[in-house]
Amino acid sequence: MSWILILEQSLNGLQFGLVLFLLAAGLTLVFGIMDMINLAHGSLYMLGAFLASTFVQLTGSFLAGVLLAIPATAVLGMLLEVSILRTLYTRDHLSQVLATFALILIINELVRLVWGSDAALPMPAALSGPVELLPGLRYPAYRLVIIGVGLAVALILYLLVTKTRVGMLVRAGASNREMALAMGVDIKLLFTLVFGAGAALCALAGSMLAPLLAVQVGMGENILILAFVVIVIGGIGSIRGALVGAVLVGVVDTIGRAFLPILLGAFFQPRVASAAGPALASVMIYLIMAVVLYFRPQGLFPARG
Amino acid sequence: MRKALFTILLLIAFPLAMQWLGYLFYVSFASRVMIYAIAATSLNLVLGYGGMLSFGHAAFVGAGAYVASILVAEGVASAWIGWPAAVAASAALAWVIGAISLRTRGVYFIMITLAFAQMMFYLVNSMKAYGGDEGLTLPRRAELGLGLDLGNEVVFYYVVLFVLLAALYALHRVVHSRFGRVLIAIRENEARVEALGVPVYRYQLLCFVIAGAAGGLAGALLASHGKYVNPNVLHWLQSGTLMIMVILGGVGHLWGGVIGAAVLLGLEHVIADYPLPWLAQVAPNYPQHASLGVGIVLLVIVLFAPQGIAGLVSRKRHA
Amino acid sequence: MLELRNVTKRFGGVVATDDVALEVAQGEVHALIGPNGAGKTTLIGQISGSLRTDLGTIRFMEKEVTALRQHERVGLGLARSYQITSIFKRFTVLENLALAVQARSGSSFSFWRPVAAEAALFDEARMVSREIGLAGRLEVTAGNLAHGEQRALEVGLALATRPRLVLLDEPMAGMGPEESLRMIALIERIRSGVTVLLVEHDMDAVFRLADRITVLVNGRVIATGRPEAIRADPQVRRAYLGDELAA
């Protein structure tokens, strides 16, 4: 267990965490401001990846493909919001859960009809090599780019939310919707824009992760749960909470998977360690969530009250 | 009441008719529908009557299925051991998950139950000793003794029917009991119930555990029925399917789970096995995209008929 | 019967109740008045147990209840009604009251026996309905009641738990003159059986009903005493009553 390995896995954890943050940020705002449970958030992530794969094939450029997929997904997201999701804001949570679950089924099948069960989005050649960060530590360039983009987006979001007027409206809406309404905010437009922004972030996450994971129908659901765990830990409505939660979840999950089996192997028989290791690793995140919620049922940085 | 009696008589007569007609497959299919009906009814208790949006109910069904299966796989074939063990295991799991989850409210509660269910899914998925992600095949169904051969489809059907009717009757009694009234009041206005001096948390937890235990029983029956269990039984999409059944059939209606399971599984079967030529011309592989239809139906119901089928029926009666 | 000392509650930077001392004697109707935002509902919340006090102690019937949860305090005989009607809209009036009676009468961990068979519960519920003047409306769904009737039911729910002290939070909120008179009569009817802490804006009602009055402004108690003394108190007139009484 060398330091190089630990550093590498930590960077992987950071990278995964930042991608989770992109998903969680949009999700936490939609919850916080519109008080709406949107299970179809993962579907936007999937759409982003599929659209990116098509655009990359059309333009021949990875960058162009991703840059086109982002607004395209944002537009699709806003259309969805205006047509169907808007009617759910005033409905109870059960209706929202079921309706957005229905959307997952519908969008999954529509994607299957248009693209088939999966698509290809290969890593751009320019970034496929490793970069020597420290002597002995060679880390894939592509993952470094993801980390960079993730940090940049976090910074931009932070500036947007804390320094601009729109950001202030968003924060006001997250902590007290009635007050925001009373202040005369055009709530419908704000909601649509927030939703579109969330969709854009999903698309960015989806298209960036696509070369590393597979682009397939159902990819949204798997990562959606993690995004929910992130915002539950971080506190609904809080971007800061989303960032802290996401990095925490990303790092714990990655390091857990990498080192728990080894750690267990030091204390238990190899048979036990090899069976219990992966099981415990998958469960780590949920244990952390349970612990956080036990002490702070509103999450670490709740936006309200 | 008369409608219920009529339905029960129909259910009793069904397998005999099928046997006489030679369509034994439908008896097995009906058993499967009724098992899902039991699972959906158990969810209806916690969701429809209790108002708790548990999105992880599949964890309890799955726990029951796995405990029952593991016992059979290890040579303990008696259902008298296996099924109570399944119920006890799911109840214990529901106690733990409920105790933590019920400390939260609203969105958090939904997400936590979802997350815990996924946690169980991953746990079970990694149990290589019992099949891991490939699942566990059983050599036989559980044994009930008493001269009843559960391997016989008709016998199995009647056993499942008995359990379903017992579950429905129990639900009926519970709903009208003191416990049921408190539960429904909590669903209507939780803060006020607490303000009346009722420790709400305890009632919600107990409801959660009862529902989990009943789900576990359904799981045990499911494992015996197919002689196979795999981690997908615990996946959150399964929890979603159960929720679809409940809302389709009618949230908070006694027969809601039954109607929902029957309609959903029935539709699935019809779409898969009875091709519509005109639809096939437009979309050649349409049975593979059955989920699209399910999704659209679900969306329509949520948006326009949230009371489900039972709700529509009772509204027509009152109108 | 009820004794508050140094009760303080902060929300972020705002001090909602500031070092409040209050005492309610057994059998009296004690009114709590003050301008909007004075902290009256926050204080009621802390007394009933739905809010945790940051500082201070609350004693009820000689017992220290500051750390007790809301449902535990109800068990000791402390009930409240809400300023914003919080009834069971889909239940009938009878079902509403029966539930409250059921909540008080022992455990509800009974799963088999139908509640409908428990005649005693419903008899008691009918009795309460007579006290609150809704005896003729038992089968009406609560959501379909007139506003004044809903407010009466609101009080009824608290009364059905047979409390020793009932906290009435603006029972006359949103009522016209006729409905207010009925509510005043209701409180007159119940005062012989239960001690009342009444939060109200309707000064007519307050001066008719109250044995003693406490005035809360910006979270602090500025005066407490008999109605005549309060009416004459210059601080109170300046802070709250002034214009209302001059008119």
What does the model show?
The complex is a heterotrimer of chains A (305), B (319) and C (247). In chain A, helix 2 runs parallel beside helix 4, helix 2 crosses helix 8 and helix 9 crosses helix 10. Chain A is mostly helical. Helix content of chain A is 75%, strand content 4%. The longest helix of chain A has 32 residues. In chain A, strand 2 and strand 3 form a beta hairpin. With 319 residues, chain B is mainly alpha-helical. Chain B has a domain of 205 residues. Chain B contains 14 helices and two strands; from the N terminus they run H-H-H-H-H-E-H-H-H-H-E-H-H-H-H-H. In chain B, helix 7 packs across helix 9. Chain B is globular. Chain B starts with a helix and ends with a helix. Chain C has a single domain, classed as Rossmann fold. In chain C, the strands form two sheets. Chain C has a six-stranded mixed sheet with strand order 6-7-8-3-9-10, with helices on both faces. A four-stranded antiparallel sheet of chain C has the order 2-1-4-5, with helices on one face. Chain C is α/β, with parallel strands linked by helices and 247 residues long. The relative contact order of chain C is 0.18. Chain C is globular. Chain C contains nine helices and ten strands. In chain C, helix 3 packs across helix 4, helix 3 runs parallel beside helix 5 and helix 5 runs parallel beside helix 6. At the A-B interface, helix 4, helix 9 and helix 11 of A face helix 5, helix 10 and helix 13 of B.
What's the short version?
The complex is a heterotrimer of chains A (305), B (319) and C (247). Chain A contains 11 helices and 4 strands; from the N terminus they run H-H-H-H-E-E-E-H-H-H-H-E-H-H-H.
Spatial strand sequence of the major β-sheet of chain A:
1-4
Rounded Rg of chain B: 20 Å
Mean of residue pLDDT of chain A?
84
Count the strands of chain A? Answer: 4
| Uncertain runs of chain A | none
Percent of residues in β-strands of chain A:
under 5%
* Strand line-up in the sheet with most strands of chain B: 1-2
- How many alpha or pi helices of chain A? 11
Counting DSSP E segments of at least 2 residues, the number of strands of chain B comes to 2
Look at the helices and sheets of chain A and give the structural class.
mainly alpha
Regarding quaternary structure, what we see is heterotrimer
Give unreliable regions of chain B as ranges.
Answer: none
Element string of chain B (H = helix, E = strand): HHHHHEHHHHEHHHHH
Coarse structural class of chain B: mainly alpha
Q: Biggest sheet of chain A, open or closed, and with what strands and sense? A: 2 strands, antiparallel
Number of helices of chain B: 14
Give the overall pLDDT of chain B as a whole number: 87
- Helix fraction of chain A, binned, reads over 70%
